């Protein structure tokens, strides 16, 4: 039996060597070698034979792929009936990263397997692999092992000096600190480092090893269990992708070997590879020329005066970067680029405005990517603190139902945030007043479920608990496929898991504020649920939570809906613009869930995870619900849709003259102390 096993592995190894695809580059200087590579973007081969993916400029992308696609699936083998099985492969390459500023670093690079060598990825945090619209898309067919050096990388990775495995996304499936023999290995030291990546198709393991020498370590630093058969196509391109952001960084590949099958990949002899210019040489090679030019000039002093004047003028107008700004993950755009993108913040491209500023449509220079640029008012109460809060929170959040923050900018008193452009605008423009286009029921129900999913992620799915504090239709944006995405995190609060929220100012929009906020001033996940309840009711009814133009008995939407519910006439509140064309079961579910979330007692509201289960049909709502202002401990004062006996109730204390307090879009933004008294009774 043992002899048969040995024979099997001998034949398997022999076949794999015969069928193996293999190449070895000890430098890239040779003309024949250059013909085997596909380069684009900033990638170029240096005179000494080093492959330079990015240079000394910001916001660059560089790609270098082996020109011929390699067969990475075995057509004769089936993967349990689910298609072809990926083959094993190994690669070794030598790299060096030389950042412009040693302590600040850059964004890094990635060894990449892709269905095409012509990637259209963005720079900065996207590493030239993807863009904001295709992150997480299974059709990407991208496997990347990233060597990341950016500070607080916003896709959730663990440090600014790590190795991660990214599959069809830039959220690492697994990542570890770069180490060697238990000590940290500085990826951006400027020294040449060798990396080994091995994929075992039978053991379904991907391994990564690192060493600053020519010897492969005995143990890998990363072992990730994965079957790449579902990710890879039969033929794939292999190569490298790198990018720079606000800070420039040079990424070099000096040698590369690759093999498919079970053969041993050739380890590179670092002493035989092209050398990399040191950081000191890189920053000072022009100094002798400058000194010689000044000495030879007869007008040295005037030239210096003019030079100093220009430098002072440029420094006065430049974007000042303070120390705390280096700790913020998303890309920092230049004010010049954003001004150019929005054509000088012209009113013609104004998308909307509110209490915190104006939002403009823009197109980023050199990329033609459309964005929305939020320009915070100079005198806005939001100010720098809330501005930083929005960057720190949404800048590191990644969910399909949240508006993606691409970056930001601060220049003197100008505060700007750059978001993905949502071509269909905000939800409120489709459900209130007299919209140009009306959403059908399926669209409304999909939007509701999407926002609920986004809130579950904020409350439970991230490393911290995020309380949005301003959930409303005006902050739900619609993408090109009419998916709902929750945006505007200017009021968001972040807490460590299990931490008791601290008292703060009462901020938000009237009609969405949970009643306990005026007593405790403590925003919680439950107060977000209350606001979501108001959103549910306004989506199904096509009305604002507080309508100053409505009849007195219809002033408060939750009050009005409850009155219809207890009288068995819930269908009466459904938006008449749907003309009866809606799913009645789903509509009743949304109405009932909206009332349940609108309860004045936080403990009687469901969690957002429970809300999602109700909306997905995974759990049934209680048969009856209590009136929103029922504070009884027994919980027996419930009314089902067929019960006509429960007396009228009110969710809110009535107030006078609210119509004069409402702003142009019908919402009233408020900010006050933790114990602000309620308005005078009507």
Which helices and strands appear, and what pairs or packs with what?
Layout: H1 2-19, E1 22-25, H2 31-35, E2 37-41, E3 44-45, E4 51-54, E5 61-66, E6 70-71, E7 73-78, E8 84-86, E9 89-99, E10 109-114, E11 143-148, E12 162-167, E13 174-177, E14 179-180, E15 183-184, E16 193-200, E17 205-211, E18 222-225, E19 235-243, E20 249-260, H3 279-284, H4 287-296, H5 300-317, E21 331-332, H6 335-341, E22 350-354, E23 357-363, E24 370-376, H7 383-394, E25 405-411, E26 414-420, H8 428-431, H9 441-461, E27 465-467, E28 476-478, E29 484-486, E30 493-495, E31 506-509, H10 517-520, H11 525-541, H12 557-566, H13 584-597, H14 608-615, H15 658-661, E32 669-672
Parallel strand pairs: 21-25
Antiparallel strand pairs: 1-20, 2-5, 3-4, 4-20, 5-19, 6-19, 7-8, 9-16, 9-20, 10-11, 10-19, 11-12, 12-13, 14-15, 16-17, 17-18, 22-23, 23-24, 24-26, 25-26, 27-30, 28-29, 31-32
Helix pairs in contact: 9-11, 9-14, 11-13, 12-13
Structure notes:
With 682 residues, this protein is of the alpha+beta class. The protein has 3 domains: 18-272, Sandwich (Jelly Rolls), CATH 2.60.120.200; 323-420, Phosphorylase Kinase, domain 1 (2-Layer Sandwich), CATH 3.30.200.20; 428-672, Transferase(Phosphotransferase) domain 1 (Transferase(Phosphotransferase), domain 1, Orthogonal Bundle). 23% of the residues lie in helices and 24% in strands. The protein has 15 helices and 32 strands. Strands 1, 3, 4, 9, 16, 17, 18 and 20 form an 8-stranded antiparallel sheet that branches. A hairpin with a 2-residue loop joins strand 25 and strand 26.
